[in-house]
Amino acid sequence: MGLDMDLVKVTSVSGQNRTGTCDIFIDGERVNVDMNKISCIEENVAYWRKANGIHNWFVDNVQRGEDDYGKHDVSYGQMKRLLWSINATLSDPNNAGLYMPTSNFVTSANDEYDDYYFKMLEYTKEVIEKCLEDKDSQYDWMSHYYYKSIT
Question: Which sequence spans correspond to the domains of the chain?
Fold first, then answer.
């Protein structure tokens, strides 16, 4: 077992003018979906495995220090702060413990500031930059994001 985490975008389609059906194929099998019964669409925009520093940032800055493995909404402002923390760490790797510290609360995750740690920061930077470009999520009326972790 390990530390697995997702960042999910939820787009509301309730009250939107939509008609018809949507064909989805799962394992080659067609699944017909009635568009009038869909209230939201969820997209996994990021997946991390054993990215201790990323998880610790979310626990401290989104989950109010409580590592409860639930779903937690991530605001536009929180994503901007995460990007700032990542950029500060990447520009001064010697201070990684100050801006994006790891934690030993998850024994299956690596708490070292190694190549994998910095690779996960680079990946997260790309993801968060794309999320911040998403104009709908800036106002939380059409779409929003949430973070979840599983150990």
Answer: 4-150
